Amino acid sequence: MSVDPLKVMLPKPWQEMDFFKKLEGLEGVPVINLHLWFDRKLSDIDQLLFSRSPLLSVYADMSNTCKEYANPDRSMLELVLAPAQDWIGKSEEEILAATMAELEKLFPMHFGGDNPAKLLKYRVVKTPRSVYKATPGRQACRPSQKTPIANFYLAGSYTMQEFLGSMEGAVFSGKLAANAIARDYSPKIVSDAQAPEETQLAIG
Ligand SMILES: Cc1cc2nc3c(=O)[nH]c(=O)nc-3n(C[C@H](O)[C@H](O)[C@H](O)COP(=O)(O)OP(=O)(O)OC[C@H]3O[C@@H](n4cnc5c(N)ncnc54)[C@H](O)[C@@H]3O)c2cc1C
Fold first, then answer.
1. Of 56, 75, 96, 157, which one is least surrounded by beta carbons within 10 A?
2. What's the pLDDT band for 1 if we cut at 50, 70, 90?
3. What residues make up the domain containing 151?
4. DSSP letter string over 52-107?
């Protein structure tokens, strides 16, 4: 799980241990996702896009990028509204209105004129604590996958691996956690010769 729920779920005596105390230095940032279904095609681009909008960081037209949402006639946009600090407490209607105003700038050909694109349905997903805020000094707060508690290992993009919080980091952290468990519980199988440095194993 991500670092914020972990912090509140740790048993009290563990919270007092230096290893877990440093987790207090990692704090998730708020992020908002918008899922918007339109009555027509807005784009035929089949990849994630960085937007020119200061409000909407990245988006994808899921009707092109994702077979579960595939539709040759109607777009379904998924957009990330970030940084969301000033928006997370606002109503869905306010967030939607601000998003639509940005979309009018991004897609003037579809939202202007006599027959503008219509929003058929929407979903606003608020994540008050997402990936940890990567400010200077955060590296020192990231824990290893192996903990001082026997039989208790951590995986998650916030744990120590070579990337910041990211999908790649999440995968690497899982490999490092599996490697730590293998080292602890299968010493004969995972000998030094078979298990190179943890990072090398994670990449391979
Ligand atoms: C809007 C947004 C856009 C992003 N875009 C990108 C991107 O473009 N590229 C990129 O590389 N990264 C991106 N990231 C970051 C990336 O998604 C994360 O770094 C990654 O998903 C972290 O993976 P994880 O497995 O560590 O944690 P998560 O994916 O957060 O998984 C933790 C899991 O734990 C579960 N959980 C929480 N509490 C409990 C509990 N009490 N009991 C049981 N389960 C629990 C949660 O439901 C969740 O499934 C984005 C993140 C957000 C929020």
1. 96
2. confident
3. 3-27+132-201
4. S-SSEEEEEEHHHH-GGG--SS--EEEEEE-S-TTTTTS-HHHHHHHHHHHHHHH-
Domain boundary among 127, 149, 182: 127
pLDDT band, residue 32 (cuts 50/70/90): very high
Does ligand 1 lie within 6 Å of residue 33's CB atom?
yes
Report pTM. 0.81
State whether the beta carbon of 34 lies less than 6 angstroms from ligand 1: no
**Residues 107-121: pLDDT tens digits?**
899 988 889 999 999
Cβ of 145 less than 6 Å from ligand 1: no
Partnered with residue 28 across adjacent β-strands are 132
The encoded tokens of residue 147 equal 């903990």
Residues 62 and 121 in one domain: yes
Q: 187 or 76: whose pLDDT is higher?
A: 76
Whole-number Å distance, alpha carbon 167 to ligand 1 midpoint, is: 8
Ligand 1 near 1 CB (within 6 A): yes
